[in-house]
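FAQ: What does a multi-protein file look like?

Like this. Sequence, then tokens, then the next protein.
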Amino acid sequence: MNRLKFEIRRKLLHLVLGSSILLGFHYEILDSLMLFGIILCGVITSIIEKERKLPIVSKMLDLFERPEFRTRFPGKGTIFFVFGALLAIQLFERDIALASIAVLTFSDAVTPIIGIYYNEKKNREKKFIVASVFGMCIGFLAARIFINPLYALFAAAGGTAAEFFEFEINKSNVDDNILVPLAAGTAILLLRRFLGL
């Protein structure tokens, strides 16, 4: 149960961060340059934090950072989340970028919690199906705000698939905060450009 509570806490931060980026980009308060600046500040803070503890930053990391990254790469989740959003904004048209970030924000926040719940309840055989379906539904509803239902369905399916399939580069797993928006956006792009839908 402690792991479930910790993951819920992390994903609440995930929701707040993602919603802030969505609103900021939608209302043209945030742009790519500002997101790049946030990432740069995050990386610098992470490097300093590895060398010596920063009072407020350390407390935040204790609350929200996974133990395996706490000393190795402080703030990894947040930094990669913003990077994933930045990639979506740079690579895709505005509506596709917003939908991709929405899938990352809402689907990716809910799916791991459902998975952990079923693991702790010893129903592991249901974990993949239930978490996938629930994550797709949430992702669809979130993406639907910015794009039509068919696009939203494919975006949610692509994002959910990326959540469960691991990809490696130089023997290191690619962070799902990068994979999810790229998969969601690519799914929409394929429909729009190659199938004429």
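And here is the next protein:
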Amino acid sequence: MYSISKAALKEEVEKLAEKAFHQRLISGYGDGEFPNKYQIVYEGKPRHFSLEHARIFLEELMQW
């Protein structure tokens, strides 16, 4: 099974979030206030995701 390191996953999520931000799909992003969580501001609401779920959310959002 393919495994990605936490650092590589975080870097990938940050790149996706930056791309989504510049496409105006999200209005903010960054490390969450909770350990191992990533915050994405979508439709004016901050949402906290695990890195894995953040990647999936951003990938699906950019497919629209």
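Q: Is there any per-entry metadata?
A: Some entries carry free-text notes. For the entry above: Helices lie at 6-22, 51-62.
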